């Protein structure tokens, strides 16, 4: 199968492409705009792989997307603006990419008559926030997004549902909890705390640090997406969670323990507006229908992740300095 992966130069997309190309016989076309979050260096080890090609472009570009879609059987759609804090600063890029871009992909998939599956990668954040004793999110829970990011993702989920209902498109929606692992952009909690610790900077904790996230190792999420592609029921939604609820302060203390550093750099700062208190996922449907379950424990996964950031200092230093942006021009020339 030839698979269009959107957003393959980001954190989860690049981990997904690595699994596809090293563990399956599928071919991959990676369509990515290379926004600030897209980094060609994430896939450096796979450049020149015979089953891989890269197209730089935006998912809202119907002409480009239509021409790429003619070549492929299936789509796994990761491309998104993904950071809640940025969506609070400026929501419009989230609407353009996450909402409009998803609709362009759905239309192009239908127009091209693709025979495979359209996997739409979404998030637990569409369900909103849980109280301390609430049961974990199930797929039929109401959508109650609280940030511009999660509202844009919920919108894209609804467009996917409509494409299935109206046009019978074989769309499968996946919703995953918070990912961590190699190649995560250092604006998100875990890489930010690791790098700030290594650089001797303070560790900014929003509010009281008692917000809970259900952490999942990125490869477990990617294997869920692959299972959804191979075995997902058209029209279905599958939750993927790590069965690993932790408060932010617990996560930060675990990182400091691995690095053998004191806790004195933890700094409690002003809370994020609309900050969701707790996420937790019920993944029973994915276990039952896809035969999927998360494999990595948080202790092992976090240690692996911290060690990856220690061993790959040049990767994140080039992000902090902005040099990673120059890599595209070196590889492909300045064609945009
Ligand atoms: P990321 O921000 O690391 O990567 C996003 C990628 O999409 C980048 O390579 C970027 O260049 C590309 N992109 C952005 N706008 C584009 C556009 N208009 N056209 C083409 N490419 C564009 O994100 P991530 O953390 O890898 O998340 C991937 C997907 O998984 C997103 O849809 C996100 O909502 C979802 N998700 C993420 C998490 C998480 O914890 N990170 C959890 C659940 C779901
Ligand atoms: P984040 O990685 O932005 O993911 P999300 O908001 O999608 O869950 O944040 C994870 C949690 O960490 C969230 O509760 C906000 C908190 N957080 C901090 O306390 N400090 C920070 O500097 C960041 C980036 C996040």
Radius of gyration: 19 Å
Shape: globular
Number of domains: 1
Query: What is the name of the CATH superfamily?
Result: NAD(P)-binding Rossmann-like Domain
Annotation field: number of helices: 12
Distance between the termini: 28 Å
Structural class designation:
alpha/beta
Listed once per kind, the bound small molecules are: nicotinamide-adenine-dinucleotide, thymidine-5'-diphosphate
Q: How would you describe the overall organization of this protein?
A:
The chain is of the alpha/beta class and 336 residues long. The model has no long low-confidence stretch (mean pLDDT 97). A seven-stranded parallel β-sheet has the order 3-2-1-4-5-6-11, sandwiched between helices. Helix 1 packs across helix 7 (218-231). The chain is built from twelve helices and 13 strands. The chain is globular. The structure holds nicotinamide-adenine-dinucleotide and thymidine-5'-diphosphate. Thymidine-5'-diphosphate binds at residues 84, 178, 188-189, 192, 204-206, 211, 213, 248, 272.
List the helices and strands and how they pair.
Blueprint: E1 2-6, H1 11-23, E2 27-32, E3 52-56, H2 62-69, E4 74-77, H3 84-89, H4 92-112, E5 118-123, H5 148-167, E6 171-176, E7 179-180, H6 189-198, E8 203-206, E9 212-214, E10 216-217, H7 218-231, E11 237-240, E12 245-247, H8 248-259, E13 266-269, H9 284-290, H10 298-311, H11 313-321, H12 326-332
Parallel strand pairs: 1-2, 1-4, 2-3, 4-5, 5-6, 6-11, 7-10, 8-13
Antiparallel strand pairs: 9-12
Helix pairs in contact: 1-7, 2-4, 4-5, 6-8, 8-10
